[in-house]
Write a structure and sequence with these properties.
This protein has 513 residues and is mainly alpha-helical. The protein has 19 helices and no strands. It is a multi-pass membrane protein.
């Protein structure tokens, strides 16, 4: 590993931009070429960011054409599972073979999946092709974040991270509109076909302008832990499937749920055995043995957990309790995409003074208080009240997430950066999956107790769309969402405690970027 470890954040001092000395590091010739690579990264990230929002809008047209309403949720679950379980695999591959070949291969696989999705003849085929898309999407999400850290020294990394955050914010706002226009005027298949020219431009820019030095081939040939990769994929797939489908496709205490959880736990044991014996493990033990990375893994897992409350339940609350139209309800949620990237871009001025850990604790502490305030809003209340809370929440989470990602990437050298970045992103994705299952069960339980057995949250929300909801139903929905927000505040508190107890006060940042 390059450089010596500094006992304090290098965020507290100025560093001179330097090209990493690691053999595999990115070598860029001038600002112009680096700008072209950044443009490619933003295009690649846009493919992943737009995917879910643009597809969700076209679901009615897709189901009307292909059928399969009972399983259409797997259009999203299948993609999410594939992205999540491949993140650590791509992280290790990028550390072994370089970022460029992994990112280009992942983008090519994503585009192949997009083309196949546009040619799908039934819902089963479309779901299978969405999984292929997800296999490439894991490379887009993880490798783009890693390469962004390679391109810039520590003091400049907030700039590129803010740009990537802006891509996600723009996708959240523009995705539904773009999906609706394409589905209405061009046909739903075009929501997948539009990926092809965007991805092609990104791949061309990467191939032409991203230059990584020749790797030293005189040493032993890199060994890929394919057995470990397969075990990780199987383990993650089984456990995440049990969480996604539990309480939806079958009851939590049914034999399918028990069988999947049991198989998943057995596979966890198998993964540990395989990875401990592997020469180059896909998930090396150091991502949990180093307190800094372990703390950030847990904290971002909690972030994924708490994000479910606003993204999944706030639109339903806005429509059923506040009586807003779908577009207005979407605006209540989307305002956090305005404050999040702004706060992330400005966070560097905070963590340079007080350090990565304290900045993140400040952000997640504020987020916990904001989430806790939501259940105390007056009933039924005015739309500006949750809108203001979402604006504040985006600012708090921008102050929380970016310092942790930049901080972790700065504590490792080039040869470990892909694995470390994939580790924290994997934990965040897993937290979102667990949160969807956990908070869905909480909301269903509250509804069941308030409405005398109406335990299917989906059927309740569909009934709300048919007209004015009865007062008892509106109050039940409000109480269910309040319970979810209490849980989200608890997740924020867990993230705060993980950083307080496990993370060092000053991240051990390397002297070299």
């Amino acid at each position: 590993m390059q450089g010596e470890r500094n006992p304090v954040d290098s965020s507290s001092r100025r560093t001179k931009p330097a090209i990493p000395a690691t053999p595999g590091a990115v070598r860029h010739a001038g600002t112009e070429k680096r700008g072209a690579v950044v443009a490619a990264l933003m295009l690649a990230m846009a493919l992943a960011a737009l995917d879910s929002t643009i597809v969700a809008t076209a679901v009615p047209q897709i189901v009307g054409d292909l059928g399969g309403f009972s399983v259409f949720s797997w259009l999203f679950s299948g993609y999410l599972l594939a992205v999540t379980v491949t993140l650590p695999v791509y992280g290790k591959l990028s550390d072994t073979f370089g970022r460029k070949p992994v990112l280009i291969a992942g983008a090519a696989l994503f585009l192949l999946g997009s083309l196949l999705c546009a040619l799908a003849w039934n819902m089963g085929a479309l779901i299978a092709f969405r999984i292929i898309q997800g296999l490439g999407g894991g490379a887009l999400q993880g490798t783009v974040q890693t390469l962004a850290a390679d391109l810039y020294p520590l003091e400049q990394r907030p700039k590129i991270q803010a740009k990537l955050s802006t891509v996600w914010a723009t996708a959240a706002v523009a995705g539904p509109a773009v999906g609706g226009v394409l589905a209405a005027y061009a046909g739903w298949r075009w929501i997948f076909l539009v990926n092809l020219p965007v991805g092609a431009v990104a791949m061309w820019l990467l191939a032409r302008h991203l230059h990584e030095p020749q790797r030293d081939t005189s040493g032993p040939r890199p060994r890929i832990d394919w057995v470990g990769a397969l075990a990780v994929f199987a383990c993650g797939g089984v456990l995440l499937t049990s969480l996604v489908q539990g309480g939806v496709a079958w009851p939590w205490l049914s034999w399918p749920s028990t069988a999947l959880f049991g198989t998943g736990l057995a596979l966890v044991f198998l993964v540990v055995v395989i990875e401990r014996r592997a020469a180059e493990p896909i998930i090396p033990g150091w991502v949990w043995r180093r307190p800094t990375i372990a703390a950030v893994n847990l904290a971002l897992g909690a972030l994924g957990l708490l994000m479910v409350a606003p993204t999944v339940f706030l639109p339903m609350y806005a429509q059923s309790v506040l009586g807003l139209a779908p577009i207005a309800a979407g605006f209540v949620l989307s305002v956090w995409t305005l404050s999040w990237p702004v706060s992330a871009a400005l966070s560097q001025h905070v963590y340079r003074r007080i350090g990565f850990r304290n900045t993140a604790m400040l952000g997640i502490g504020a987020a916990a208080l904001i989430l806790l305030a939501f259940p105390f809003l007056p009933y039924p209340g005015s739309p500006w009240q949750p809108t203001l809370l979402m604006l504040l929440l985006g600012g708090a989470l921008g102050l929380f997430q970016l310092p942790l990602i930049v901080g972790v990437q700065s504590t490792v050298g080039w040869s470990e950066r892909g694995t470390a970045t994939a580790s924290v992103l994997f934990c965040r994705q897993t937290g979102q999956t667990i949160g969807a299952a956990l908070f869905g069960a909480v909301a269903n339980g509250v509804l069941a107790s308030r409405l005398g057995g109406a335990s299917d949250l989906d059927s309740v929300t569909r009934a709300l769309g048919t007209g004015a909801a009865p007062e008892a139903t509106r109050r039940a929905i409000a109480e269910a969402v309040h319970a979810v927000y209490f849980g989200a505040a608890g997740a924020a508190a867990l993230a705060f405690v993980a950083l307080l107890v496990l993370a060092p006060r000053r991240f051990p940042v390397l002297d070299s970027p």
